[in-house]
Amino acid sequence: MKESKKSIKENNIIEAAERVFDAVGFKNAKMEDIASEAGITKVTLYSYFQSKENLYLAITYRALQTLNERYYSCLDRNKNAKGVDSVIALIETFMSFCEDNFLYSETLLDYFSMVRSTSSGQDKSKLTEATKESIYYLKLQDIQNLPFKLTAKEIQRGQEDGSILSNIDPIFSTLQGWSFIIGYTKVLNANGSNQSPLFNVNLNDLKRFNLKLARALLSNEVVANELENVDLLV
Amino acid sequence: MKESKKSIKENNIIEAAERVFDAVGFKNAKMEDIASEAGITKVTLYSYFQSKENLYLAITYRALQTLNERYYSCLDRNKNAKGVDSVIALIETFMSFCEDNFLYSETLLDYFSMVRSTSSGQDKSKLTEATKESIYYLKLQDIQNLPFKLTAKEIQRGQEDGSILSNIDPIFSTLQGWSFIIGYTKVLNANGSNQSPLFNVNLNDLKRFNLKLARALLSNEVVANELENVDLLV
Amino acid sequence: MKESKKSIKENNIIEAAERVFDAVGFKNAKMEDIASEAGITKVTLYSYFQSKENLYLAITYRALQTLNERYYSCLDRNKNAKGVDSVIALIETFMSFCEDNFLYSETLLDYFSMVRSTSSGQDKSKLTEATKESIYYLKLQDIQNLPFKLTAKEIQRGQEDGSILSNIDPIFSTLQGWSFIIGYTKVLNANGSNQSPLFNVNLNDLKRFNLKLARALLSNEVVANELENVDLLV
Amino acid sequence: MKESKKSIKENNIIEAAERVFDAVGFKNAKMEDIASEAGITKVTLYSYFQSKENLYLAITYRALQTLNERYYSCLDRNKNAKGVDSVIALIETFMSFCEDNFLYSETLLDYFSMVRSTSSGQDKSKLTEATKESIYYLKLQDIQNLPFKLTAKEIQRGQEDGSILSNIDPIFSTLQGWSFIIGYTKVLNANGSNQSPLFNVNLNDLKRFNLKLARALLSNEVVANELENVDLLV
DNA sequence: GATGAATGAGATTTCATTCAT
DNA sequence: AATGAATGAAATCTCATTCAT
Predict the structure, then answer these.
(1) How far is the CA of C49 from the C1' of E4 (A)?
(2) Which chain A residue lies closest to B96 (C-alpha atoms)?
(3) Which of A180, B11, B221, C16 is most buried (most C-beta within 10 Å)?
(4) Structure confidence by residue, pLDDT tens digits, D103-143
């Protein structure tokens, strides 16, 4: 089978799996059902994806790829904009991505929970065999830091064009933004959509607030100064 | 068996389960292993906890109870402090709690992911039967909003004592703080501990920054004004 | 479960398997069907016998044990008879055993085909993994030579009591008898029963002839002399 | 493709299959491996032989054809010899054939085990579909009795030329000889070769003894008389 | 006729969970 | 309440066999 054809088939399967996982969750999803949703047999399914976990990681990989693509196209759209605008747009892109794709956002969060700092040689006892053998687990490691790095680079660009405060640490700020996004997404996912209110709060307001906050932290000298002087006392 | 005795045994089991889940994760943990870690047989284990998920929810319940206790004792410690200090202390309490208890923080995040707004009558298709039948699932629903409510009340107290800006919405701010905490915790858990740096960032700095930020957002008029005027442009 | 109980259950399973194998043959027999014939589930079946081949070898072991028992009781019946009579009775016992138990005789023949001289360290490439791991494969090796040895010993007894010619080699004669038995059994099994004639030959006549021949070879000096003088010319 | 070309290819495949079956046995042999041993693909293999069993029966057919050819050439060599010599030569031919071709002898024995008296209308439940549909299964039925018949005819010739006792039944004796051969072969195959001793017996001695015995049974009046008078007592 | 992909049947395994004693 | 055995659901694997191109 030509690569392209094989790839199409893989895509079909992944999409079928996404529908099933989205509908009933990982645990309840049966390989049999995923296969029949994809219009193939279980064995064929296994010939493409060697385990249920591998299939889940394939979806995770797709999620991250999709996110990365959105990042790149966002960067492209903002290549002439100021750095700070681009950074905010990236954060907004991530948030929107999570709003639009419950499954994707969950897979990404699951993934980041799982890796537990792959940089260091930590104990892998929590990884299942299937995960360790998954080709997608490897592939994910190659691109997992991409959104992070792209954001950090954009912050630097902002510092160069003067739109972002020069005394902030790009890495730190990226991590800070990352934690905003995850926090927002988790709250969002615990809710269902940003249309339905959680405790009477419209989650869209939460998003907007986070974005404003991010912008201020990146570029507002007054805010920066004030923060500098906050006394923690803890 | 007297209640107390039974309760002691339940505790032993839960603690054994915590050790096992902590070591190998939920998926890899076997009921058999948990039973033998607790020094009992599988069937006895089942007589106490009717399913693996129920056991996990029992731990989750314990996690939330523990968190709530820490909240209460934090409130007690700060009953004479200003509202804003108390709120910041609560946030710090939650963060520290997550730092100290990887398993507890994961169970809580899992739980909040799972409930997906129990307030509204959403589809429960992703809940397993075991979860629906779990007594701890019910018990959790009774206390799940407690930390949230306590925080909101403390913000109101802060507004009354003048330490917190009067024009902020306590519910909104609580949710905002909640998302900070979750974001921080997820980043933390993806790392391992706040001692080891992630991308060269000391996570303790991230924590301190978040706390400062929270304090500023609650009480700093200048920051509030600046934020008010941020133009999003997104 | 007490040993006895476990043993009873194992027996039930083996008997169920015998019925199924007898009815449809090894290849066509499904573990599922054997399980349900035994009134248990597949998994339980597997907990007793780890593979289909192991189950088959268990039947083989039973076949050999049964044969051995018949040998012992035959020896007991003939303990006061002359050696030659005992030897002929043993051969007749084996033949009858094969007549009565098509499955058993096939399993034994399969087994002896398979072992290919376990005495020497031959290549085991034809053995499946399941066979190599079978406990019954090991157990069979312990008793596989028993009927052979018992026969040889009985020939010696016959030589001592004068009922068997002193110049024959017990081992050689045993092997010779063995090949008679196998030859008869194979012809028999290719037929179905010794009641239905094969090429118009009543197989019972073949059996009687073989027994007569064996007796003559063991004890008839005239025949021995004649054979001695046969010129092969081949 | 011309018939001859097709036939050559078929031969190649059969020979490849023989190598594989010989090396690892029927059960362990994979069609994939046979195909690649033959330098073709699995599908091509299937276009020539419709099933694994059919392929095995093709080998069986070849075995029987080869045996038959050897019988004919043996007959030819002995067309001027006395009947008894010819019969003994036939038996020796069969035995040597089995010595030389482990796989062939096994296929033949498997085949004769399988047919279970095709003369009568027995239940075919143990035959697989693949066997029933095999063209070689049909072809085998046409020639399966040939060695048997040729032997019987040769015995008759011996009776006519006076070299074989007139009062024996050719069919019965042929069957008797057949069972000798099978018995010898099975013992042989359980051993490996007639060079290596089984229980210290040189299998070549067993062969020679069987041949002598056959000759005596066919032509020696003294032996016949003695046998006549053997008392079975069983 | 050749090829790579797919199918179908059934063996085997793993566990959470339940039963019987 | 404790124990060993059994169950049921689903994952996974192995191959002979078939399909589509």
Answers:
(1) 38
(2) A234
(3) A180
(4) 999 999 888 877 764 444 456 667 777 888 888 998 998 99
In chain D, CATH 1.10.10.60 sits at 1-49
| D198: three-class secondary structure by DSSP | strand
Whether residue C56 lies within 8 A of chain D, CB to CB, comes out as no
The CA distance from B119 to D122, in Å, is 72
Residue A195 DSSP symbol = S
Contacts of A128 in chain B (CB under 8 A): 27-28
Long-range Cβ pairs for the range C206-210 (8 Å, 24+): C206/D172, C206/D175, C206/D176, C206/D179, C207/C92, C207/C95, C208/D232, C209/D172, C209/D176, C209/D227, C210/C91, C210/C95, C210/C180, C210/C184, C210/D176, C210/D179
B-facing residues of A in 2-41 (CB < 8 A) are: 23-25, 27-28
Q: How far apart are CA D36 and CA D30, in angstroms?
A: 10
What is the helix, strand, coil percentage profile of chain D, to 5? 75, 0, 25
**Which among A177, A187, A175 has a CA at the least distance from the CA of A213?**
A177
Q: How far is the CA of A23 from the C1' of F18 (A)?
A: 34
Which residues of chain D neighbour C27 with C-beta distances below 8 Å? 128
Tokens of B74: 């934090």
Chain D partners within 8 Å of C186 (Cβ): 109, 112-113, 179, 182-183, 186
**SS3 at position A233:** coil
Contact list, D223 vs chain C (CB under 8 Å): 216, 222-223, 226-227
Q: B19 in helix, strand or coil?
A: helix
Residues 194-213 of B with CB under 8 A from A: 196, 198-201, 205-206, 208-213
A26 CA to F10 C1' distance (Å) = 13
Nearest to C180 by CA among D90, D166, D217, D222: D217
C-beta separation of C113 from D106 below 8 A: yes
Tens digit of each residue's pLDDT (9 = 90 or more) over C191-226: 766 777 777 788 889 999 999 999 999 999 999 999
The matching CATH number, chosen from 3.30.420.40, 1.25.40.620, 1.10.357.10, 3.40.1080.10, for D50-229 is 1.10.357.10
Instruction: Report the protein residue whose CA lies nearest the C1' of nucleotide F2.
Output: B44
Q: Does C172 touch chain D if contact means CB atoms closer than 8 Å? A: yes
Cα angle, residue A91 at apex, residues A90 and A97 outer, rounded to 5°: 90
The CATH class for the domain spanning B1-49 reads mainly alpha
Q: Is A112 on the interface with B (CB under 8 A)?
A: yes
Give start-end residues of each CATH 1.10.357.10 domain in chain A: 50-229
Whole-angstrom distance, CA of residue C142 vs CA of residue C138: 7
- Chain D, 130-149: which have a CB under 8 Å from a chain C CB? 148
CA B1 to chain A, closest CA, distance in angstroms equals 36
Chain C 42-71 residues in 7 Å CB range of strand E: 42-43, 46, 50-53
Q: In the 8-state DSSP scheme, what is residue B119? A: T
Supply B115's token pair.
Answer: 């409930």
| Cα–Cα distance list, D24 to B23, B50, C114, C119, D62 (Å) | 45, 50, 11, 20, 19
**pLDDT reported for residue B161:** 95
Instruction: Give the confidence band of B125 by pLDDT, cuts at 50, 70, 90.
Output: low
Distance, in Å, from the CA atom of D157 to the CA atom of D81, rounded to the nearest integer, reads 10
